[in-house]
Each structure stands twice: as structure tokens, then as C-alpha cells.
Design a protein that fits this description.
Oligomer: single chain
Mean pLDDT: 83
Distance between the termini: 58 Å
Low-confidence stretches: 1-35
Largest sheet: 12 strands, antiparallel
Number of helices: 4
Helix content: 10-25%
Number of strands: 17
Strand content: over 45%
CATH architecture of the domain at 242-411: Beta Barrel
Structural class: mainly beta
Radius of gyration: 31 Å
Strand order of the largest sheet: 6-7-8-9-10-11-12-13-14-15-16-17
Order of helices and strands: HEHEEEEHEEEEEEEEEEEHE
Length: about 425
């Protein structure tokens, strides 16, 4: 009986091994499709140019291309610019720039990420849009026969005009606090406010009241020093598009701030702007000139160095700015000048520049800097500031200029591929 059982067991195991072997052969035969014969050199190379994208996720979501570290090595340069629209969300403009055998084959897609999106929703939607844009390039490669295009759920979407009960308005209420407590000192800050935004082709409206409170205390050998501060205000912008080159707007600002020696102020500045390039091209290149003219009422917490407790001041300002986002890098800069009419010596000039230049394959130059020439601090309080206010930066100090910036150079070399994603640690 035992021998019979052993004989049947051996035969069963042999049959099972044969079945597994046949299944393996059948699986290999079944999977012997062109997809297994695709070579790495059959895939197009892509350089992903985006400072705020989840690069690892996009690599995993789009595995049918090779990712390279420099645009000079790529068949397709995917350049993404992001334009945040206040609290309503962000608009991603995705430019596909062909190189090598795809020179001149360029395309542009847009992806809108509302503020209600989670981070995962946004990166999924962006990856899908990048995938759509790459298909036309992949279609010209040996893996074209592996592409399948289908409509989700195989259903046609009925197009109809949707009614928007909010009429493009988006609102946000926020509040928060930071705190630090130690045996010898404590720091508490609180903030809350409200956003209201409306953006259409014709209008751009942004309303923002905000409130900030701070309390800082620390112990010395002889006493406990306490400093309370606040910065409350309102920012309002209403901009009307006139055409592809002209727009006009009204800017309203109000402030109450212990740091700025301001009990209350309100400014109203109408303005007009001209864009050399059409506004539709602003995500890639923009040169604009804007002029503002208006009046403000200022009521101070303490008498100023000019002997004023309150005053009405007329002012105007001119702003010229330039922005270029190109395959060779991006440049942003401008100059801003303004003055009060009651005294032309009460003026301000600002120059700023931000550059990220790819000099050649692997070598990049980064620079940013600002220079402010400041002669318009009409709200400075009369008298000397206390040592505590100076050290804790609780009150504004007199200055005639402010300069800051950074410069950096980087060179990347080695393997041109960046396909592997390893999220460990």
C-alpha cells in the first residue's frame, strides 16, 4: 500500500512538473510579442524641465521614454511653467520642444489644477497631460504598434454649456498660529484672513483682508520684556483686459501695522499696462510697462520724523518688467520707480533680476538679486528706537538702501539617463 502511494505521488509530482513546464512554455510563447523586443535605444529621450513637479512620480507614470539629465541629450524638451491664480488654483503650461529628428515639431498643452485638488490629484492630472503630448513623438518610433488610444469607459461625453452659480468666484478662509515656549522666552503668532478671486478672460479680481498678531516675551536679569505687534490690512485688485496688449486696473491697499508706525492708511491707485507681446504668449515671453497714479491717507501711531501725525499724499510709479522662459533657461527682471509729489526727494527705485541660464550641456548659472534705493520712509517715528525694538526687529529703522542676492554655478556630468526611481530612505 505504501509503495502504491509513493508511486502515485511520484507520478503526480511528475505530471505537475510537466504541467508547470508546459504553462511556462505557453506563457513564453504567449508573451513573445514585440513589446519584449523593444530596445532602450528605441525609446525617445526626454528632458523634463520643471522646478515644482514630482519628477519621480512622472517617471513611474510614463515609463515608455528615457529620461535624461540635460536638454542637449533629449529628443523632446518638456518645459513646464506654472502660473498660480491666487487661492483658486494653478495653470500648468506644458511646452513640447522637439530636437534632433524632431526639430520643428513643437506643441503646447495646458493643465488646470484647482485649489481643491490634493497633491496626488494634481500630479496624476499633470502626468496624464504630459503623456498625451508625448504620444505624437512616440508614434514615430518602433514602439508605435504598442500604443492603444481609447476613451475612458468607451463613452462619448455630451458637451453642453454648464451653468456656474458662483460666476467664476473662488473663496478661501484661512487661520493659523505658531508658538514657541521656553523657560526664558516665548513667541506666539496668529494669522487669519480671507481671499476672494475671480479670473476670466476679461476680468481679474482679487480681494484679501488679512490679520496678524504677535506676542514675544523674554526674561532678562532684571525684568520680563514683552512686545506685542500687529499687522492688519486689505489688498484689492480689479483688472480689466482691453485687448491682447492693453489692460487697466484699480489697486486699493490699507494697512495698520506697529512695525510700519501706521495706525491706519488707505491708498487708491488706478493704473494702465501695455504688453509688447500678446498676453496669450506671457507664459513664455513677456515685456510690460505699467503706470500707476493715485492718492493715500496716512494716520500714524506716533509723530513721524517730519512732524506729521496724519497726512494725505499723492504719488505715482512706473514699472517695467521682462520675463523669458525658454529652452536655454529663464530670465526675469525689472525696474520700479516711484515718488510722492509733495517732495520729489521722497522717492524709491528698485532693480531686480532672476536668471537661470544653461550655458552648455550640464553647465548652469543661477543668479538673483535686488537693489532698493529708499528715500520714501515718511512713516518713520520721531525719536530713538529702544534696543529691544532694534534687536527684535519690532520697528522699522531708517535706511537709504537695501541690497541682497545670490549667485551659483553648477555642472552635471556622468550617465545621461535618469530612468531609475528608488524612493528608499
Amino acid at each position: 500500500m505504501i509503495q502504491l502511494f509513493m508511486s502515485l505521488t511520484k507520478r503526480s509530482l511528475a505530471a505537475l512538473a510537466l504541467l508547470v513546464s508546459l504553462n511556462g512554455l505557453l506563457a513564453n510563447e504567449k508573451n513573445d510579442t514585440p513589446i519584449n523586443k523593444i530596445r532602450a535605444e528605441d525609446l525617445i529621450s526626454v528632458f523634463l524641465d520643471c522646478n515644482q513637479c514630482d519628477f519621480f512620480y512622472i517617471q513611474q507614470a510614463i515609463p515608455f521614454v528615457n529620461y535624461v539629465r540635460d536638454k542637449e541629450l533629449a529628443h523632446v524638451h518638456v518645459m513646464i511653467t506654472i502660473h498660480h491664480n491666487g487661492s483658486s488654483g494653478a495653470n500648468y503650461e506644458i511646452n513640447f520642444i522637439g530636437s534632433k529628428e524632431f526639430v520643428g515639431k513643437n506643441n503646447m498643452l495646458r493643465y488646470w489644477a484647482p485649489s481643491t485638488n490634493s497633491h496626488d490629484d494634481t500630479r496624476k492630472g499633470l502626468a496624464e497631460m504630459i503623456k498625451f503630448g508625448l504620444i505624437s513623438y512616440v508614434a514615430a518610433t518602433p514602439i508605435a504598434n504598442q500604443i492603444v488610444v481609447s476613451l475612458k469607459d468607451n463613452q462619448l461625453i455630451e458637451k453642453k454649456e454648464l451653468a456656474d452659480p458662483w460666476e467664476s468666484w473662488i473663496f478661501e478662509v484661512y487661520a493659523g498660529s505658531n508658538f514657541l515656549f521656553e523657560s526664558e522666552k516665548s513667541n506666539l503668532t496668529a494669522r487669519y484672513g480671507f481671499f476672494a478671486n475671480k479670473t476670466t478672460d476679461d476680468w481679474k479680481i482679487r480681494l484679501r483682508p488679512y490679520f496678524n498678531y504677535g506676542r514675544l516675551s523674554f526674561k532678562t536679569d532684571s525684568e520680563v520684556v514683552v512686545r506685542e505687534s500687529h499687522r492688519n490690512g486689505f489688498e484689492g485688485t480689479v483688472i480689466k483686459s482691453l485687448d491682447q496688449h492693453w489692460s487697466t486696473g484699480l489697486f486699493v491697499n490699507s494697512l495698520s501695522s506697529t512695525f510700519h508706525n501706521m495706525n491706519f492708511n488707505v491708498e487708491m491707485l488706478p493704473g494702465i499696462e501695455y504688453s509688447i507681446f500678446p498676453y496669450s504668449e506671457a507664459t513664455r515671453k513677456s515685456i510690460t510697462v505699467a503706470y500707476k497714479f493715485g492718492v493715500g491717507y496716512h494716520n500714524y501711531l506716533e509723530e513721524t520724523i517730519f512732524g506729521k501725525e496724519e497726512e494725505v499724499l499723492w504719488s505715482h510709479g512706473l514699472v517695467a518688467s521682462i520675463t523669458f522662459q525658454q529652452p536655454w533657461g529663464n530670465v526675469r527682471g525689472g525696474i520700479h520707480g516711484s515718488h510722492f509729489f509733495h517732495d520729489l526727494r521722497s522717492n524709491r527705485a528698485e532693480i531686480y533680476s532672476v536668471m537661470n541660464l544653461r550655458l552648455f550641456s550640464g553647465l548652469a548659472l543661477n543668479f538673483w538679486g535686488t537693489l532698493n534705493l529708499i528715500n520714501d520712509l515718511v512713516a518713520l517715528p520721531k525719536g530713538d528706537l529702544s534696543l529691544e525694538d532694534i534687536l527684535l526687529q519690532q520697528r522699522r529703522q531708517a535706511t537709504s538702501y537695501q541690497a541682497q542676492g545670490s549667485v551659483g554655478l553648477s555642472y552635471t556630468f556622468g550617465s545621461k539617463f535618469t530612468n531609475v526611481v528608488n524612493p528608499r530612505f
